[in-house]
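Sequence in, structure out.
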Amino acid sequence: MAPEATAPPRPYRVALVAFPGIRAFDVSVITEVWGTDRTDRGAPAFDLRRVAADRANPVPMRGGLALHPDRALGWLDSADLVVVPGLDDHLTPAPAPVLDALRRAHARGTTVAALCGGAFTLAQAGLLDDRRAITHWRLIDLLRTHHPRVTVVPDALFIEDDNIWTAAGTAAGIDLCLHLVRLAHGAEAAATIARSMVTAPFRTGTQAQFIERPTPRADRDADTLAAVREHALRHLHEPLTVADLAARADMSPRSFARHFTAETGTTPLRWLLDQRVAAAQRLLERTDLPMPEVARRAGFGSEVTMRQHFASRLATSPRAYRSAFTGGNSPIAR
């Protein structure tokens, strides 16, 4: 007797919260990440729905565009993730039913995220009271003024507090969306989507939002640093140090660190460790290599060191990470 076919797992449900005043760019980012079928390339199946208080009428956006909702707010009850786009006018009041629905979603334990000025919507709902949040660097003072109970972080790409995610402006919204995919489905899934979008698969949320444009001399330094980073990525398994990278750039460690931070928004050591964690994540997802070998190939030297960095950066262990993704589960709130 043939065994019964196993039903495929249901798609991961994402709710795009729509109301008049949302930014078309952020709607496009959310749609590109979760609204495109890439299952033929190994990406997870997603069910993205455009949710609004008034499902019957299009939601107007700037530039003559309109979004047609396909679900009412009640759909948030079954969503795995709720995403709020940014706003054209950052003080736009969200409809009361939208604010109520966001509060209920968070109370149920659903992950809630806002891109750019979408933080103002979450603040209107009271979800950011006494919590850390970020928005576009030009809006930080405005958010502090209108929502004084929010602890506004001055310089980050995205942050999380109590399962609520906020992101800085424009490109940082892409970073956050890919990070949420990475948390729910693993580094390989995020990389698959990033390749399709022709964007960087991994920027840490702790990077600076704003980097001064280089002078002509700094342009030459930037070319050198890009080559050094490429070399480091090819040789992560080796015991590279910041001093090694500085020597390859023909700079003193102090000068190298200064130029590297100005170019990338993060320190050489943090960047190197982040890349090693990302390499270990890919190995844990793709292979059944023993932990000491994963640690060696990712450049940690020992399983103990790898475990320490997983705990500090991902709040989990390498074994738990492998178990979560090879078992089809996810560490992100469902």
